[in-house]
Amino acid sequence: MYNKYQKPFIHTSRKKASRDYFAKKKKLKTKFLVILTLGMLLSGSAIYVLLFSGLTKIKNVEIVFDQNPRLISENEVKNMVYNLMNEKYLYFLTRTNLIFFSKERLMKLADQDSRINSMVVSKKWITASIGIKITEFLPIAKLKILGDNTIYYLNPNGQLIIPSLKNEIIEDRATENGGDNQLNNTKDTLPFTTLVMVEDRDDNEEIALPMFYDNTSTSLNNPKIIKLFKNLIDFINNDILIDHGIIVSNIEIDPSGGMYEVKINTLEGWYILIHSQVEFDKQINSLDLVLEKKFDNREVLKYIDLRFGEKIFYKLNN
Known about the structure:
Layout: H1 9-52, E1 60-65, H2 74-85, E2 88-89, E3 93-94, H3 103-111, E4 116-124, E5 129-136, E6 141-145, E7 152-154, E8 160-161, H4 168-177, H5 182-185, E9 195-197, E10 206-208, E11 211-214, H6 223-236, H7 239-243, E12 248-256, E13 259-266, E14 271-275, H8 280-294, E15 301-308, E16 311-316
Parallel strand pairs: 1-5, 6-11, 11-12, 14-15
Antiparallel strand pairs: 2-3, 4-5, 6-7, 7-8, 9-10, 12-13, 13-14, 15-16
């Protein structure tokens, strides 16, 4: 018999399913909130430990020099690091933290220093330190400028080398010489010998660094003169000169209509004339050609002129 007050079975089932659904949803929401809270706590703890606890704050700068002559002092390198550490990061953080310290910025600064050949920078997380390994340039030529009796030194890139007066090796000598001008104080105080070992020569002899005489009155910071110095350094250290046993004693550089004319004097007494307007590779190849075909005995030679490209001139001693 039908009871009008009895609730249908289907209505009860739907209500039960609805309660189960909302219970499950509430459980998932609670679980999500717990996970979110734990994640925020862990993230906050990690941020505090990494950024504010001092655990990753840079505590030391370890510097290793690959070789002498120690043209740059440890204090100078450390000051480069400290200046970068004091820079702001994201407007309110500093780079005193290993995470934010930029190795690339430091190596870029090193590239701009004429004394540094290479710099390798590493972050040491266990000791919270910056590790730096430096290889300095060895001087490859001496330089005298017109009207200046000071002897300067050039690196293989044609740049002027100015050692640090903070360097303990030269500090005493610099103090004895007196004066405040850094360039003048470097005269005769560089912490390396003016003799270098030329390993490629058969007799392994020691020879003096070649002297460049700059008569151009051009600023030594001028890219044009720096490029010339580099090209000349490459020229006189070319395998062709070494194979022929040619040792350069000095180089005279004179202005020539906005370009440069160069006289390369050899220890054998003869000289080579080249011009900056002519490609240096062509001039060195021309030199090799004329030496191979014309001169078994260079004692009779006065000069070889390579300034005119494919036209090669030479003169013999009377």
